Amino acid sequence: MRTLPSLWPPSLAEVWFSLTWRQQDLDPSVTQVTNSDADHINQFNPFPDHQTASLSGPTIPASRTPSQPAVLQPSTEPSPQATAAAGQASLLRQQDELERKAADLEHREQELQSRGASTGKENNWPSLPKAFPINPCFYQDFSAEIPMEHRRVCKMMYYLWMFHSVTLFLNMLACLAHFTVNTTYGVDFGLSILWLILFTPCSFLCWFRPVYKAFKSDSSFSFFIFFFVFFSQVVVFIIQSVGIPNWGNSGWITSLSAISFNKAVGAIMMMVACFFTTCAVLSVIMLRMVRGITVTPWGNLYCISLNPHILTTSSKLIG
After folding, report:
1. At what angle do helices 263-293 and 220-242 cross, to 10 degrees?
2. What is the average pLDDT across 285-300?
3. Which of 26, 78, 169, 205 sits at a 20 to 30 Å CA gap from 271?
4. What value does the mean pLDDT take over residues 129-151?
5. What is the rounded CA–CA span in Å between residue 269 and residue 304?
6. Rounded Cα distance, 305 and 309, in Å
7. DSSP secondary structure of 153-212
8. Where are its TM segments located (predicted)?
């Protein structure tokens, strides 16, 4: 559209508008854009071909399974029978577990005992042949377990027990000889066998083992057991040396009565009476010697005897 010349002088705005319109007519790029009939907005592609090619692939159809509505399950409390059954099952499981643990502990204890028996100290008393059906019952070693200052006294106590055992055996033989010459003394022979079977092991367990343990561990309680039992043993030695008739002892009374009708039997019985007298004298001497070295004086024995705990556990130290 062209402006017509005016008779009036042109204003500044009209001059600027005229220059701008002419410049558009002269610029080919402006003319090309304004004359193009294509819609550039519709031709714009925000996704290039190289990006859409990588996204192309088979289309996975959506699941056609109709969705189920969520259903809430009603809460049910267990019945008392079910609770009791569950508790019983739990107790049974615990019992089985405890039994397995007990069996395991017993197995381990047996292994430890077997190892201790193989590596520890083996019993050596009494020393019996390997073919003998009875094994040694105690471990006894004066040089290893008894202190040097008490070893001599402890050995003397052991020799006294051995001498007493030999005396009991000779007493049985003397009573047997007395019974062969006079059948009225069969009671003495029977009782002599009983004293041999009874006093030999009991004297070892009741007064020698306690004094051995007392010297070994310096135990006041073991000394108390020894003094109490060994004092009774001294009384028995005196009775045996006296030789009361029909008591099963070849003492002085029975030996003097036997020598009147058989001198050989009387001599044997007098020898046994000397042995019983020697046992009585030696027992008194040893009692004084042990009393002199014990850590528990005689004045404290009465206090120890009043302790019920000591009295109830006395049998444990005898073995």
Report:
1. 160
2. 72
3. 205
4. 87
5. 42
6. 10
7. HHHHHHHHHHHHHHHHHHHHHHHHHHHHH-GGGHHHHHHHHHHHHHHHHHHIIIIIHHHH
8. 158-179, 185-208, 220-244, 264-287
Average pLDDT, whole number, for the chain? 77
Name the pTM for this structure. Answer: 0.57
Per-residue confidence (pLDDT) for residue 194, from 0 to 100? 96
Indicate whether 129 pLDDT > 90: no
Whether 210 contacts 225, CB under 8 Å: yes
Q: How far apart are CA 211 and CA 23, in angstroms?
A: 140
Residue 147 or residue 104, greater confidence: 147
**38 pLDDT above the threshold of 50:** no
Residue with tokens 């019945």: 79
Give the SS3 label for residue 260. coil
What are the start-end ranges of the H helices in the chain? 12-26, 28-35, 40-43, 49-55, 80-119, 142-145, 148-181, 186-203, 209-217, 220-242, 252-258, 263-293, 298-305, 308-312, 314-318
Higher pLDDT: 176 or 113? It is 176
Q: Are the beta carbons of 100 and 88 closer than 8 angstroms?
A: no
Lookup: tokens for 75: 């809460």
| 161 Cβ neighbours under 8 A, 6+ residues apart | 203, 204, 208
